[in-house]
Design brief:
Number of domains: 1
Mean pLDDT: 77
CATH class: Alpha Beta
CATH topology: Aminopeptidase
Helix content: 25-40%
Largest sheet: 7 strands, mixed
Number of strands: 10
CATH architecture: 3-Layer(aba) Sandwich
Oligomer: single chain
Strand content: 25-35%
């Protein structure tokens, strides 16, 4: 990926990110919350071009991000460029307790701007570590994520990171699509 400056914005895999350049050359997480966030149009484009192809319409999710409701949304910026997005609930839930997933923090979205980049696995790991850090700080022991069958690389990624498939559904979020519920228990508290 070769992001280019476009006037005062950045280009990432065809998405425009408005920001002032960041001077550090390390990973930085920029929170995206509220209607005044300059990143909301870029997040919307990212959802329309990658997330909605795997799941149903994300208008409700985008509204919750805009309102800063019930979830943390953060862009991973390496050096000057946005590289990924992670969205996770702010509080654990028992929504999937009938599958043994209790008091668990839900990862809503974990996406890399350019999934074909050589560092894609590193970036996904950095995004997941951000969720781990939040869970540790809140003393939340469990995490879960729902992954589409259309994203086998994501299923493999979560399994390699200690998540186990605990349930499967057909037509849950997208008609004609199978999804899997992955859960990771006993997250280490630092």
């Amino acid at each position: 990926m070769n992001p280019l400056y476009v006037s005062s914005s950045l280009s990432c895999h065809g998405f425009c990110y408005f920001q002032t350049p960041i001077k550090r050359q390390k990973d930085y997480f920029y929170p995206v919350k509220g209607n005044d966030s300059k990143y909301l149009p870029s997040i919307k484009n990212l959802f329309e071009n990658s997330v909605e192809s795997l799941y149903k319409d994300q208008a409700s999710t985008l509204e919750k991000i805009a309102r800063g409701e019930d979830r943390n949304s953060e862009l991973l910026i390496r050096g000057k460029y946005p590289e990924g997005l992670v969205i996770y609930k702010t509080e654990p839930s028992d929504e999937y307790s009938n599958y043994g997933v209790k008091e668990s923090l839900e990862i809503k979205t974990l996406v890399v701007c350019d999934p074909n980049a050589n560092s894609s696995s590193y970036l996904k790991t950095a995004l997941l570590k951000r969720v781990d850090q939040y869970a540790n700080n809140k003393k939340i022991l469990n995490q879960h994520v729902i992954v589409s069958e259309k994203a086998p690389a994501d299923q493999d990624f979560f399994q390699k990171k200690g998540f186990e498939c605990v349930a499967e559904w057909q037509n849950q979020h997208l008609l004609g699509c199978k999804e899997k519920l992955f859960s990771k228990k006993n997250v280490t508290i630092l």
